[in-house]
Design brief:
The chain has 9 helices and 13 strands. It has helices spanning 5-17, 20-27, 31-45, 62-86, 102-119, 132-140, 200-212, 226-234, 283-295; strands at residues 50-53, 57-60, 94-101, 123-130, 146-150, 158-166, 169-173, 183-184, 193-197, 218-223, 240-242, 257-262, 269-276. Strands 4-3-5-13-6 form a 5-stranded mixed β-sheet. A hairpin with a 3-residue loop joins strand 1 (50-53) and strand 2 (57-60). Helix 1 (5-17) crosses helix 2 (20-27), helix 1 (5-17) packs across helix 4 and helix 2 crosses helix 3 (31-45).
């Protein structure tokens, strides 16, 4: 071979980001080095990998898409050699791209990330946020190695290791008449304006709660942004529902919030780790899973308050 693994890694970074500039930032190298690696691969392999568009960055050609998948597999296999070599010394090293569900990423991931790289300083961790659907697609395309998400509509090509059950909360402005309650029934809020979290699978989950009770919600706003949703509720524009209750009970606009447990929630969300079944798992992914099991417990979920009725229930190993 007349190309190196380093050149392959530069190509993969450019292919995933669609930009020489962002690729250079990702791998911490100069832009000319990334461009030179791409040009070298195109010359060596005899194919055009990218279409270069000044305004829109880089677009993979059809051969480029196939080469990107093959390059990622080659890099993954190369890092497995380090796994074999380091097994005796219990060393965990190399890159890992962790997917995180958008609504709880800002709460859980900082502590989880910091603890992991403190334990394994040779690990290079990258976090990708997204909706459930975006995370599953990232796993399928091998852009993500493992995803911390909810067990919603998982397809047969995915494995899922549950960690903890998450009760649903009704999100209210702090001056709402129900704000001081420990729990509330959805029927009591049936006539009030509702603000919907508009993420692909979350939307279906929360709307199904109304359907189960034969209630038609009065939707006054829809947003894919949890922070915007909290600010709407804090301003008194309506109520909403979430499965996360942050330690910080303030909305981003400075308004106080109340999180009241939803009565009769027979299908709580299950938070856990999703992986592609047929993907070879490097040792660093197993180490991250073990770290999550250690940090996310019944008594402590990073960035979140415990439940008033007791801790979230940790789930035993199952698939």
């Amino acid at each position: 071979m007349r190309f190196t693994l380093r050149q392959l890694s530069y190509f993969v970074a450019a292919g995933e980001t669609g930009s020489v500039t962002r690729a250079a930032e990702l791998v911490n190298i100069s832009q000319p080095s990334v461009s030179a690696a791409i040009s070298h691969l195109e010359t060596e392999l005899g194919v055009q990998i990218f279409v270069r568009q000044h305004a829109q960055g880089l677009s993979l050609t059809t051969p480029g898409k196939r080469l990107l998948r093959a390059a990622k597999e080659s890099l993954r296999a190369a890092y497995e050699l380090y796994d074999v070599a380091n097994a005796a010394g219990s060393i965990v090293s190399g890159p890992i791209n962790v997917g995180s569900f958008r609504t709880f990423s800002s709460l859980i991931m900082p502590e989880l990330w910091r603890g992991f790289i403190s334990k394994y300083p040779d690990a290079q961790m990258v976090v990708t946020e997204g909706s459930e659907a975006e995370l599953l697609e990232g796993l399928r395309s091998a852009r993500i190695d493992i995803a911390l998400t909810y067990q919603l509509n998982l397809t047969p090509d995915m494995s899922f290791q549950p960690l903890v059950e998450m009760p649903s909360y009704v999100l209210l402005a702090a001056d709402h008449r129900f704000a001081g309650r420990s729990s509330v029934r959805l029927e009591e809020l049936a006539d009030e304006p509702f603000i919907l979290l508009d993420l692909p699978l979350s939307r279906q989950y929360f709307l199904s709660m109304f359907e189960q009770r034969s209630i038609t919600p009065r939707i006054v706003a829809e947003t894919a942004s949890p922070s915007t949703l909290r600010s709407y509720v804090g301003a008194g524009l309506g109520f909403s529902m979430l499965t996360v209750r942050p330690v910080n009970m303030m909305a981003e606009n400075g308004r106080p919030l109340a999180y009241v447990e939803l009565e009769g929630n027979t299908s709580p969300m299950v938070m856990g780790l999703a992986c592609l079944k047929d993907m070879r798992r490097p040792r660093i992914v197993d180490a991250f899973e073990a770290h999550c099991r250690e940090v996310i417990t019944a008594d402590h979920i990073p960035g979140m308050r415990g439940t008033d009725s007791g801790p979230s229930r940790v789930i035993a190993d199952e698939v």
